[in-house]
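Below is how a single chain appears once it has passed through the pipeline. First comes the sequence as given, then the structure the pipeline wrote out for it. We keep one example in the README because the format questions we get most often are answered faster by looking than by reading.
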Amino acid sequence: MNNAQAQPSDPSKYTLSNTNLLESASFTAPIIAVIPANALVQVVDSAEDWYLVTYDDQTGYVPASSLSTTKYTWLDVLLRSYPSAESNPIASLPPKSEVEVLSVTGAWSLVMYNSVKGYIFNYFLTDDGNPPAEYDYTYFNTNMTRFVNENNIQSPTVNLITTDLENKITYVFEKVNDGSWKLLYQWLCTVGKPSTPTIQGTFYVSGRKPYFGTDNYRAKYATRIKGSYYYHTVLFNAAGTEVIDDRLGVAISHGCIRLAVENAQWIYDNVLDASAIVIH
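Resulting structure:
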């Protein structure tokens, strides 16, 4: 058994099957190349359901559904040769190790770590590398102000965002002089559907883009939660001139969190990079 080394810092993912590299974010776009299954691609940019990637010195678009999912270990974990605790260990991974999930078999995930493939028990993986019960969530769904203050949630900026996936509400807080959090806004939102759930954990705002989309829709005022997950508006047509899906309070997205246009714009315009986000 080897002690696996940390993965390179450049964002990368693996293809789940033979995948077309396309000239634009559209299934009807010209094909640049066919990327074989389990090939490593470098991520240039991401949106909710498409990635801009580089493979074999060629750059193009692939659907997010064709790529691995990023997870993190939250404790020392053994990478095993088969989905069983009795199988031989291949490598030892330290806490906060980033892995790419290729598939899930029952309670086990088939992952890639530092170009090594093996299985990890699902419970040992989270979206943010923190233990599943990092906070006391007693009041998360009933009194968000009490939750953030009793848990002493920390943010590098004066703002904190939380999203309650059960009630489908996003909250924005501002830090006051005594260090506590004051609720500024609470907005109904739309979250990921069961097959493409919204990630859970603690994250930090990591950039923004005025819009992204495909031939079928455009999402505006996108503030990045992590990777291809964003807070953004309800859906517009491809030209961005007309709202085509204004549903809120439902679980229908590909994982992003949709908000009313004015609410998504407020986050985009006012919440600084590195602001903390808690989603549960």
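Confidence is low (pLDDT under 50) at residues 2-9.

See the next section for the split statistics.
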